[in-house]
């Protein structure tokens, strides 16, 4: 086959390069940080030419945004799998905690470092649209908790207050788990959440 390939094969090859670039960026951004990871590092790890990056992403900022969106979708996938196993509102609340624990259990290059979205947001300047992606993710998680809590004997305002409480518990556990490099704090947070729900 020629270097350029046929018109039918070019989109597939470009798509494969895009996926390799995004996977490499995700590994490096999580392990080393967004600012510390250069384009050369990403293209070398992906095994593609630098021009391939710019054929697939308009800039490093575009790549970062795509990474943040993909990380959000990755978590949603874990959450949906856990949600499918839950049989009631209590189980659905705990599915949110389980999805975070599942994320912590991934095999990361340099171990678990906490929430990849928050880690990236901490490096982005105020006003950066990437921070908005992270904020929306956290708001969605709290909204999911509130929706599941509404299935339990809570008034709407109580469900919202408890959702905020549980989201703070979850975020604190993620921060400590990231510092300690293990998901143990997430297991503790889940047990605390279960205990709170069992007191209804």
Largest sheet: none
State the secondary-structure class: mainly alpha
Computed CA radius of gyration, to the nearest angstrom: 19 Å
Helical amount: over 70%
Give me the number of helical elements.
9
Secondary structure: number of strands: 0
Poorly predicted runs are 1-13
**Strand percent estimate:** under 5%
Order of helices and strands: HHHHHHHHH
Shape field:
elongated
State the oligomer.
single chain
Span between termini: 67 Å
> Average pLDDT across residues?
91
Q: What does this entry look like structurally?
A:
The chain has 200 residues and is mainly alpha-helical. Helix content is 74%, strand content 0%. The chain contains nine helices and no strands. The protein has helices at residues 10-32, 39-46, 50-56, 60-85, 89-104, 116-123, 129-149, 156-180, 184-198. α1 (10-32) crosses α2 and α8 (156-180) runs antiparallel to α9 (184-198). The protein is elongated. Residues 1-13 have low confidence and may be disordered.
């Amino acid at each position: 086959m020629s270097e350029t390939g046929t018109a039918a094969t070019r989109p597939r090859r470009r798509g494969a390069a895009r996926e390799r670039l995004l996977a490499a960026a995700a590994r490096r951004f999580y392990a080393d940080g967004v600012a510390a990871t250069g384009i050369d590092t990403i293209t070398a790890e992906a095994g593609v030419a630098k021009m391939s990056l710019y054929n697939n992403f308009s800039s490093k900022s575009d790549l970062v945004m795509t990474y943040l969106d993909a990380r959000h979708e990755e978590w949603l996938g874990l959450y949906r799998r856990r949600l499918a196993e839950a049989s009631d509102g209590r189980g659905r609340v705990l599915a949110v905690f389980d999805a975070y624990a599942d994320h912590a259990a991934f095999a990361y290059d340099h171990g678990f470092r906490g929430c990849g979205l928050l880690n990236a947001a901490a490096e982005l300047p105020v006003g950066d649209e990437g921070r908005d992606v992270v904020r929306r993710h956290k708001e969605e998680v709290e909204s999911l908790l509130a929706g599941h809590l509404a299935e339990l004997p809570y008034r709407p305002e109580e469900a919202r207050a408890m959702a905020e409480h549980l989201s703070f518990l979850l975020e604190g556990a993620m921060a400590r788990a990231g510092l300690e490099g293990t998901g143990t704090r997430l297991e503790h947070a889940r047990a605390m959440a279960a205990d709170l729900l069992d007191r209804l």
